[in-house]
Amino acid sequence: MKIKTxxxxxxxxxxxxxxxxxxxxxxxxxxxxxKAEAGQNLRDESDSGQIIRIALASxxxxxxxxxxxxxxxxxxxTEMDASVEIIQKQSYQEVNQMLKSGEVDIxxxxxxxxxxxxxxxxxxxxxxxxxxxxxLYQSYTIVSQNSPYESLEELEGKRFAYTDxxxxxxxxxxxxxxxxxxxxxxxxxxxxxxTYSHDYSVKAVELGIVDGATVDGVLFDQLxxxxxxxxxxxxxxxxxxxxxxxxxxxxKKADMKMVEEFKSLLFNLQEHEKGKELxxxxxxxxxxxxxxxxxxxxxxxxxxxxxxx
Length: 309
Known about the structure:
Order of helices and strands: HEHEHEHEHEEEEHEHEHHEEEHHEH
Helix content: 25-40%
Shape: globular
CATH class of the largest domain: Alpha Beta
Structural class: alpha/beta
CATH topology of the largest domain: D-Maltodextrin-Binding Protein, domain 2
CATH superfamily of the largest domain: Periplasmic binding protein-like II
Number of domains: 2
Number of strands: 14
Mean pLDDT: 85
Radius of gyration: 19 Å
Strand order of the largest sheet: 1-3-2-4-13-5-14
Largest sheet: 7 strands, mixed
Strand content: 15-25%
């Protein structure tokens, strides 16, 4: 039996009515361009300056994703004397396709997308964020503060929200937990949603659209600090296995000299006052080289998605 997935538009319509912005369809959106802000055409052929195309998947809703990274990437673009374009895609799979084709140079992706990119041999490592002293994170299983549920087992037969089909904390981690407990991955939940952003998943639980959800623990902790009105009505009832934090990667088709310069700037942000300020704004300690061993838990669970390990 296939997982019964309720169309995302139904969920997002409800959230939209409640005051959240609805995600656009999956077409490319240029959220920010330093050239456009300077009054230049994005594709001015007479301009020989470097353009760095950077993709963001909807870890958070599009507006939150842009707000989180725009200043950091604009700063890096200035330091590299390059124009920066930030491109939004709804799903992790779409961003990975852009990396594979070389349509973008750099991307901020999730940990599962990273493992799939390595497996497909179309990405190279750039950096991983360190948050609260660690380059590791976990999934949280969340429910409403007013619900009776105290464990994952009690959500059997209930409505549940995933974030993205190719998200570790937003889906694969919970599938792995169900597998380890011997439950059916396709029949455990009554209905499932894909929200395509962790804050939308939190909102879906708060509104009672679903009984539970799985979200990025680091992002949830940050939401507790920045948006306590949203998370105050939420309880965490389970935590998944640790994996490497969502990394920054580059397409193998990108200019490697540019990638190395981009990487160097990331690794040295904390050495400069402006860099420290930007890291503080996005809630990171600093960036470090990616340790591929931190992602082995994901590699070992790929078969749950129908992927060979």
